[in-house]
């Protein structure tokens, strides 16, 4: 029984249809802004899931763009960690019409 509850929580119901209301992310992803100490050039964008790379004058950078789900977010954070970059902050950036 716990197995079926896990499936429902993960976005599946017993009939195999998606239960999108249970998922914390939308199908097109949410926009995130990741503030990093250190810099990479824009050529790293594709490797970092297509996030926009904005370099700051103080030696920091901001990665911005949609991230489809928590697994993709963790993938980006793990890549940054492997590059030995320091995470300063991460924020979800909501569209003006979202609450």
Characterise this structure.
The relative contact order is 0.21. The protein starts with a helix and ends in a 6-residue tail after the last strand. A 4-stranded antiparallel β-sheet has the order 2-3-1-4, covered by helices on one side. About 20% of the residues lie in helices and about 30% in strands. It is globular. It has a domain at about 25-95: Alpha-Beta Plaits (2-Layer Sandwich), CATH 3.30.70. It has 2 helices and 4 strands. The chain has about 100 residues and is an alpha+beta fold.
Descriptive labels:
99 residues, alpha+beta, Alpha-Beta Plaits, four-stranded antiparallel beta sheet, 2 helices, 21% helix, globular, disordered N terminus
CATH architecture of the domain at 26-93: 2-Layer Sandwich
Biggest beta-sheet profile: 4 strands, antiparallel
Low-confidence stretches at least 5 residues in length (pLDDT < 50)? 1-14, 18-23
* E-strand count: 4
Annotated CATH topology of the domain at 26-93: Alpha-Beta Plaits
Overall morphology: globular
In DSSP terms (H or I, runs of 4 or more residues), the helix count works out at 2
Share of helical residues: 10-25%
CATH class of the domain at 26-93: Alpha Beta
Mean pLDDT: 80
SS class: alpha+beta
Strand content: 25-35%
Strand order of the largest sheet: 2-3-1-4
Q: Distance N terminus to C terminus?
A: 35 Å
N-to-C SSE series? Answer: HEEEHE
The rounded Rg comes to 16 Å
Question: How would you briefly describe this protein structure?
Answer:
It is built from 2 helices and 4 strands, in the order αβββαβ. With 99 residues, it is of the alpha+beta class.
